[in-house]
Write the structure tokens for this entry.
Amino acid sequence: MHPVLSGGANLGAYFLGWLFVAFACAGLTFAGNGKLIYSLAFGAISALLASLLFFPVYYPCLALKPGKTGTAILLSSLAVAAAAFGVIWAGAMFLALYLLRQTGYESFQMPNFVTLVLMGSVLCVLTEAVYYIYIAHTRTREAERLEQELRVMAREAELRALRAQLNPHFLFNSLNSINALTGADPKRAREMCVLLSDFLRKGLRLGERLSVPLSEELDLLKNYFTIEQIRFGSRLEVDWEIDDTALNAEVPTLLLQPLVENAIKHGISQLIEGGTVRIKAGVKGVNVLILLENPVDSDVKHPKGLGLGIKQVRQRLAASFGADGHMEVDSKNGLHSVRLFFPFIKKEASDD
């Protein structure tokens, strides 16, 4: 479809541009002969005929692409098109002025036909230039749109790949927890199986989405802690400090899961007396701040698995929020802490 016909704004801009040409032609004509009525009429007729006759000039401009068409062929083709449209426009102008003169308007003059051809060719060249500017602008916008879509697709593919690495990880940890109770306490092992079933159901449902409200992410963590508290009993406590304003913040699905697994596997389970996992979430300015803290045995060497979980979370933050999402990790005085910062993007919580 011709771009002029693609919308009212383009159509209005098209005729507004030719209105400017009408005043320019009228001004030049008035400067040449000093007759205002003739100059205004000449400018109006020039622009009207040009707007109609030069309308299809868009199509040769669309077909002759700079960079793909040779320079000599491009320039010669555009010159031939300008000359041809110039002759057509000059003929239409000559006929229009002749008819006006025949109706008794003696003030209308008959310009030299060659002059009209040159004038029409110049107007056609200017029209070609405007069309090329429009085509280049449109193609640039389309390229930017495609590039944005490709970036989004690449980011989604990266998030899915990272999430796929996490799914079996927490499943194996849960099964190991059940296995640890099977012989010692079958009743609690059966209870744990029921909780694990509910946990996996919610996890699979959330796993179908790239991001979820923080409230849903925390609900899944509460299920996980319930499973682990059956295993650890009074050795595991959880301290929740959640600001309600942060609950609708959008977070990558299962972002916090590897962090709480690390807190239990490399923190609580290594301490005879156990300890408390502290989870805090709030909004600071335009960012969401999430803090996870857990006690660790300061005499135990930094485990390799802990580094993998941290790396995965850092990668997912970068893939989701770019430079606006980052993580700080600190471990001192027997306390391991992870701080997450990312933009607050509100996402309505979905109904279960």
